[in-house]
């Protein structure tokens, strides 16, 4: 999978992505409610910039889809409203429906249990959504779920303590990549070691970034080259005054997919962040870099049939991480 860009295929409404983002955010605002989560709404707006149509129409469709998803969700695996919203975003983006996703998740969960995968409602839903999107809505095969399990088990051989259900979505993404589960896990491990040797520490954030970058790895684009690109981006951002925390490693990993020179990527994200900055409230400051990188990624490659699902699952993981930080989820 080479570095990607869909610049040549942009529609008219994507020529001004920041303006589109603000228009969608404004259209969603009247229905947010007094206690609604503005950050979740803005992650949703960033993910919807590719969807054609009037912002008001998209906002109505999104809220109705989120409501349906919440009503159909079994009470024992109920999610926070913010996650209902983000799942609804993915459904709207891919013209899917809550009942179809829930039915498929129920079916695939039985396969997961039979294969010995741990029960983890949020991550299972994201993994099913990823595989369903990659398959253009076709039923997920037993063989694909088994491949996901085998990739997960191969990852555990390298990082037994770090690897857990939070890695299910990345394993789901990797099911469509060429190579054996052992080869794919080795790519991720080699990238991890390269980033660690480059001074980026260790732990779950680094593993998530490494798993994402493994999507790009091949004989023609080996792990060391991907580690170097990630480290070059981090260095360039920090040289430009944007300190990169461990919680933002996945943002940088996303940017590694873009077919741009490192300085151009940094300049693009900085421009988005500056354009967003005037309207980002003080308590959303920590998410400004995430809004900007998500917007850049979705706008440039979100319509790619292989990379689009990464944008979906990344937005869901962003929202879930925020919920966990705030004691929710």
Account of the protein in words:
Pfam families: DUF4003. InterPro entries: DUF4003 (IPR025062). The chain is built from 15 helices and no strands. Helix content is 63%, strand content 0%. Residues 1-10 have low confidence and may be disordered. Helix 1 packs across helix 2, helix 2 (38-47) packs parallel to helix 14 (288-301) and helix 3 packs across helix 4. It has a domain at 97-325. With 329 residues, the protein is an all-alpha fold.
* Radius of gyration, CA atoms, in whole angstroms: 19 Å
Helicity, in percent?
55-70%
Task: Determine the mean pLDDT.
Answer: 85
N-to-C series of helices and strands: HHHHHHHHHHHHHHH
Strand content: under 5%
Secondary-structure-based class equals mainly alpha
Sequence stretches where pLDDT stays below 50 over 5 or more residues:
1-10
Number of strands: 0
- The shape, in one word, is globular
Pfam family, one: DUF4003
InterPro entries: DUF4003
How do you describe this structure in short?
With 329 residues, this protein is an all-alpha fold. Helices cover 63% and strands 0% of the residues. The chain has a domain at 97-325.
Topology:
Blueprint: H1 17-28, H2 38-47, H3 55-72, H4 81-93, H5 98-114, H6 121-134, H7 142-158, H8 168-174, H9 181-197, H10 204-213, H11 223-239, H12 249-255, H13 262-277, H14 288-301, H15 308-325
